[in-house]
Amino acid sequence: MGKLVNVVKDFTLLVKEEGQIVEKKFKAGVQKLEDSVLGHWFAKAHVEDVATKADSKASDPAAAGEEVDGKASDPAPAGKDAAPTATDVAKSADFKATKADSKA
């Protein structure tokens, strides 16, 4: 049958079909995948349900980068390990110290 999912990151899956090992490559993006592929543990690590993704954005417009109180918001960071933005770096004490040191 299949299901519509979002492939978060490109991946390659080796599966056995009719006694042969077949290499299947999947590109990032929304697509319909077969149930046999979706049941594989490696595929589960690289996909997310499209409905779940849409529901989370609908419940938090700021996380989706939509306007909140008439102002466009930046999308929420991917998590605590997300790379700092240029604004975060500019606000940091280390950046200010480095900037001051360069003027000396």
User: What global shape is seen?
Assistant: elongated
| Mean model confidence by pLDDT | 74
Number of discrete domains: 1
Instruction: Report Rg.
Output: 21 Å
- Detail the poorly predicted runs: none
Q: What's the helix count?
A: 5
Regarding quaternary structure, what we see is single chain
Q: Largest sheet, if any?
A: 3 strands, antiparallel
Output the helix-strand order: EEEEHHEHEEHH
Q: In what range is the share of β-strand residues? A: 25-35%
**What is the share of helical residues?**
25-40%
Name the strands of the widest sheet in spatial order.
4-1-5
How is the topology of this model organized?
Layout: E1 3-7, E2 11-17, E3 20-26, E4 29-33, H1 35-38, H2 41-44, E5 47-49, H3 50-59, E6 67-68, E7 71-72, H4 86-91, H5 93-103
Antiparallel strand pairs: 1-4, 1-5, 2-3, 6-7
Give a structural overview.
It contains five helices and seven strands. The protein has one domain. 34% of the residues lie in helices and 30% in strands. By secondary structure, the chain is an alpha+beta fold. The longest helix is centred in the C-terminal third of the chain and has 11 residues, at 93-103.
Overview in brief:
With about 100 residues, the chain is α+β, with helices and mostly antiparallel strands. It has helices at about 35-40, 40-45, 50-60, 85-90, 95-104; strands at about 5, 10-15, 20-25, 30-35, 45-50, 65-70, 70.
